[in-house]
Each structure stands twice: as C-alpha cells, then as structure tokens.
From TrEMBL:
E.C. number: 3.2.1.14
Pfam families in the record: Glyco_hydro_18
Descriptive protein name: chitinase
Biased composition (Low complexity): 261-272
C-alpha cells in the first residue's frame, strides 16, 4: 500500500462543519474566546445513566458546571449538551432498554433533566451496546445480544420525548470488532432515524485487547471505522470524526520488533519497507480470565502531569517520533527505555500536524459533517491541538466554499 493519498473531496458544504468539544469534570478548563470561536457544540461529561432509572433522582440534576455557566463562556449560539453514560457505564442503559415501559421511564427522566438544566439536548454514551464493554469477560456478549435491537428502540423513545427541537446524539465505537455487534445494516437506519449525528470514537483504536502495536488514532484505522458506518447506512454528513487530546503508550517486550516478522505497519504490503515499531507483538495486556488491566498500557492528557517513570521517554517521543505516511499516524518506539530492562515503550498520539492531515484525508474526502474531541480541557494549558483542530475546520470550510464556486 502506498502512502495515503487525498481523493477528490465529496463533502457537502452547505452547512458549516460541526466542531464539538466534550468538557469533562476531570479537566473543566475553558480557554478564552480566541480559541473557542469555531466551536459549535459543548458536551458536558458525564451524568451517570443509572440516575434516570430512579424514582426520585436529585431534582436539581447537578453538574460540575451548570449549563448556564458553560453557555456564558462560549460564543452566542453554541449548543450545550449533556452526555449520559461513558466508558464502563453499561448497567443503567441495560436496565433502561429492557422493555418499552423502562425505555419510556428513562426517556421521561432525561427530558425533565434537559428542561431543568436548560441544555440543548443529550449525547448518549452507551459506548458498547451488544457487548465488548469493560465487563466483557464477566458478562459474555451472548448475554447482551438483545441490546443490539433495544438500543435503537431506546433512542427512538428519547427522540419522541425530547421532540424535534432538542438535540440527540450518540458516541459510538470505532473498532470494527465492537461496531459489528450493534451497528449493522439492520440497525443503523433505525438509529439514524432518531439521532441528529453520531460521534465516531476514532481513537483508542489500539487498546489492551490488541496483540500488536498500531496507531490508536491513525488515518487508516479511522477510515475503516467510518466506512463501517457508511456501508451500514449512516449518511456521511451526520458522522463526526473523533480526535484524542491525550497520549497513549504500551509496554512492548524488548526486541519484540527485531525478532518478529510482524515488525511492519499493518497497513503496508509485503513489498513495502518495514516500519520499525508498528505491528510488533505486545504480549498479553489484560488478564485472560477477568479482562483486568495488567498495567502494560497507560495514557495521559496534555493537562496531566506525565508519569515520572515515562517522562523522559515521552520527551524522546515528542522529539524523535515519526509520522507514518502509510497508516497515517505519529508514533515512537523507545527501545532504550530506562524504566524496565525487559520492555520497550511504544507511543501513539496525534501531533498538531497529524490533526491537520486528517481534514483532507478523512473529513473532506468522506464528506463528513463534523469533528469532535475528547476533550477541551484535556489540551490545556497550551491548547496546541485545539488550535490545529480549529484551523482545520476553517480551512475545510473555506476550501468547500471555493469548490462550490467553481
């Protein structure tokens, strides 16, 4: 496979690109208006799903920041939504989706919350309906197969109760093995009938369930994610590409790349020159019985303190990393890591340059309706990745207008 190339843009340019920022309770940092002027939606994360099944939830529906406080910090017209759920939050959704009565009850409570808080809508973060969530070793996917049908039914109840004036979106998985469980040609049309747009989580595409190194938010992997939804019937203009304002690293057995025939990009052909550090075996990263993390992977946002044991290695990754033109991602293999003589460190993250490349290669070529990032405060204090995302939005929209005028 040759380097990723730009295909003729097909994006519709009549509507401005959505530029959505999740604002998290972990990093509730909001920059000034010079950096947020292109943001169209802010999504407050999270409210737990289980509270919407309670008979008497807190009538004030508290958030780490109120909708009014957030709205005052962004340009007029910015939509403020509330995200419900999140990674590992599955039980509340499963309870809500079980039958029509429970779905109606859940939807009623969500609608009340929207009215009380003054939000413009909700983002449903039931990230893994049908299985493969955090508990997939304890609760096998076969016991969750029913959720694939119940998921669009829950969204339909929410849409009915929220009405056409409130926004309804969903954060959805990016890895094909996860997508395939509940997002199929049989279900996606029903899902799209209820939501305004989907936030496709085109990050964490490498995680502790994988056996070889690859980009966690690369271009080739992102395109594969989006193609899955497009082929299942989701309109491109209602899909948003996900960006990660954080870094991931994985411990790799020393000399694993050198001793493995897989030490090449998973997107390259047999005739291509190997790309050291990509496609290298990692060894087990989770407990085979429980699925628990074995401590061989880590991550941090740009607002976090870099863990002491990997701080020096991260500086090397920033200075010496490589952009893979085949798979479309920035990475670095530290084979001289001082932290453990038995392991190397594999780094994978987006630089501002990698973010810029995704607009022509993905957003424009696929005709997507927008982008989003997890999360706004995670990029503090420098906000270099936020700026790159804003610049990409502006350039794509200007390029789209120019094409329309031809």
């Amino acid at each position: 496979m040759t380097a990723l190339s730009i295909v003729p843009a097909v994006m519709a340019t009549q509507e401005p690109l959505r530029n959505i920022m999740y604002l998290t309770g972990q990093h509730p940092v909001i920059p000034d208006l010079t950096l947020t002027s292109t943001i169209t939606h802010v999504v407050l994360a999270f409210m737990p799903s289980g509270i919407f099944n309670e008979e008497e939830p807190d009538p004030l529906w508290p958030l780490f920041l109120s909708v009014a406080e957030v709205r005052a910090r962004f340009r007029p017209g910015t939509k403020v939504m509330v995200a419900i759920g999140g990674w590992g939050d599955t039980e509340g959704f499963a309870t809500a989706a079980r039958d029509n009565s429970s779905r109606q009850f859940f939807a009623e409570r969500v609608a009340v919350m929207v009215e009380v808080t003054g939000a413009d809508g909700v983002d449903i973060d039931w990230e893994y309906p049908g299985g493969n969530g955090e508990d997939y070793k304890q609760v096998p996917n076969s016991q969750k197969a029913w959720e694939a049908t119940a998921y669009p039914q829950l969204l339909a109840c929410l849409r009915c109760r929220l009405g056409p004036s409130n926004l309804l979106s969903a954060a959805v998985p990016g890895i094909p093995r996860d997508i395939a469980l509940a997002f199929t040609p049989a279900t996606v049309p029903d899902i799209m009938a209820s939501v305004d747009f989907l936030n496709v989580m085109t990050y964490d595409l490498m995680n502790r369930r994988d056996a070889a190194t690859r980009h966690h938010t690369g271009v080739a992997g992102s395109l594969a994610s989006l193609d899955f939804y497009l082929k299942a019937g989701a309109p491109a203009a209602r899909l948003n590409l996900g960006f990660a304002f954080y870094v991931k690293y994985f411990r790799v057995p020393s000399d694993a790349c050198a001793s493995s025939s897989n030490g090449t990009s998973t997107t390259s052909t047999a005739a291509a020159d190997p790309l050291p550090g990509l496609g290298c075996p990692t060894g087990p990263m989770e407990d085979p019985e429980t699925g628990a993390d074995l401590g061989r992977t880590g991550g941090f946002s740009y607002h976090d303190r870099v863990p002491d044991d990997v701080a020096e290695s991260f500086l090397k990754a920033l200075a010496q990393g490589t952009y893979d033109e085949r798979g479309g991602g920035y990475y670095y293999l530290d084979d001289d890591w001082d932290g453990d003589n038995d392991d190397d460190l594999f780094w994978t993250f987006d630089t501002p340059d990698a973010i810029a490349r995704k607009f022509p290669l993905i957003v424009e070529s696929k005709g997507l309706g927008g982008v989003f990032a997890w999360g706004l405060g995670e990029d503090a204090p420098e906000f270099a990745h936020l700026q790159a995302l804003a610049d990409g939005v502006v350039r794509s929209q200007a390029g789209g207008r120019a094409r329309d005028e031809l």
